[in-house]
Amino acid sequence: MKFGKMKTQRRNRLVMVAFIVIGAGVSVSLALNALNENINLFYEPEQIVRGEAPVGQLIRAGGMVKADSISRSTTDLKVTFVATDMRGSEITMQYEGVLPDLFREGQGVIAKGRLNEQGLFIAEEVLAKHDENYMPPEIADTLAKAHKEGKMGEGSVDKDVVDTLEEGATTL
Fold it and tell me: Do 92 and 9 have their domain in common?
């Protein structure tokens, strides 16, 4: 079999198909990379204590604000508090800025931030429960587990939250 020179029209089609395939591959890889960078998974205090949460990566963490754990700086807007899953696991969170009006002890909180090497969660954003009938599903699931295991301490959470959990709700 003898192969001669490729005809111009066939060569142009081959080049066009090659560019389309390469362009589609680059587009898909860029889109997947952008999606991967924007993922911030939720971790419970127990998972963070066990070392399952990545250090230095943007994640969400949450729990109930532990009673008598809020410490405010006298010189700036820095606030340190402890979030607990009510099952014995606790993480210390630090946030610099104005906290939501509904932020207080015994309330659900979800923070977006990074875990440092010392195990301190440095929050960039703090979200607090916004009314009496809603709680983020992640926090409600954590509290429901703690309630079923009988590890919720007296006075650690609002009575309304405990009553709702006893009714079998997963989101408050």
Answer: no
> DSSP states of 4-62 as a string?
-PPPHHHHHHHHHHHHHHHHHHHHHHHHHHHHHHT---EE-HHHHHTT-SPBTSEEEEE
Judge contact between 91 and 50, C-beta under 8 A: no
Number of domains in the chain: 2
Burial class (CB in 10 A: 0-12, 13-18, 19+), 69: middle
Please check whether residues 20 and 77 belong to one and the same domain.
no
Closest CA to 54 of 107, 121, 128: 121
Token output for 46: 């127990």
Residue 108 class from Cβ within 10 Å (0-12 exposed, 13-18 middle, 19+ buried)? Answer: buried
Prediction pTM value: 0.61
What CA–CA distances, in Å, run from 88 to 1, 52, 58, 93, 163?
Answer: 78, 17, 24, 16, 21
**Contact present, 120 and 132 (Cβ < 8 Å):** no
Contact 141, 86 (CB under 8 A): no
pLDDT over threshold 50, residue 155: no
pLDDT tens digit sequence for 103-136: 888 888 999 999 999 989 999 999 986 555 666 7
For residue 151, the enclosing domain spans 42-166
